[in-house]
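Project standup — Tuesday

K.O.: blocked on the structure for the chain from last sprint. Re-posting the sequence here as requested.
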Amino acid sequence: KWNRERLEACTDSFICPSQFLADKMIQGGFDRGKLHTLCNFIDVEKCADAAYLKKDYYCYIGRISHEKGIKTLIDAANRLPYKLVIIGKGPLDAEMKKLAGPNVEFAGFKQWNEIKRIVSQARFCVIPSESYENNPLSVIESQCLGTPVLGAQIGGIPELIQEEFNGLYFRSRDTDDLTAKIQAMLRRTYDFGASAPVLEHRGALLNTGDNTLTYQGQRVSLTKNEYRILLCLMQSKGRVVSREKLMERLWETDSFVDENTLTVNIGRLRKKLDAAGLPGFITTRVGLGYMVG
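H.V.: unblocked you, prediction finished:
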């Protein structure tokens, strides 16, 4: 009969995909000297050519079942106006679809190419597990696709998240904390070097690496807020961007933003563009917002 003592006697080394598992094995009486932590890994080539420009939704990928925390996630999502895309199937499919509000989209089962597109374009991915996860590949894949992770503080999940750099934690099973952290994630921008290094319009080049604009050989330095405004407008060129959308982008700086702050920043940015030889680069659509013209 196999038990812990016999298993340990016959084994030279145990490979633990997380420090969490190693700690649990030590707690269970295994010899610390035989335990070695080696995280899971993926073939990063399968993450190549992902569509890194973010869209206005966050996502969940996994089994639709109790242990994955899907009900807690939908309860939190129903309190908020933001779009949630759920990838996967499971025994709670019908129940969760009845529970979900209109801002929750069930994408169903998807193959990798579709998963890659949805996850890489999401603002962030949520891992709301309510039972122990060891070293979930969903976290690693999301991060390799340039998408930060909001993860439950349970099992090995926190080991894969460096707060304020590639995601945040929340207390597992805590709907209030999850709701607050979803809002916090939407106020932040995580730079994985994913955006195109240069955006162009009317011969002006917005350099995403150093927050500058170049036009006819002249380099224009931009403040953080000016850069965020211009980036948002140039990513949406040909379309009107509302003041609300621009203010949301500025909130990502974690500084207080109101209507006057946006107006002042737009005015300063226009003066810099005029001085650089780009008059009328930003146009106002009365009652609607702004666009680059």
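K.O.: great, moving the ticket to review. The radius of gyration is 23 Å. The chain has a mean pLDDT of 89.
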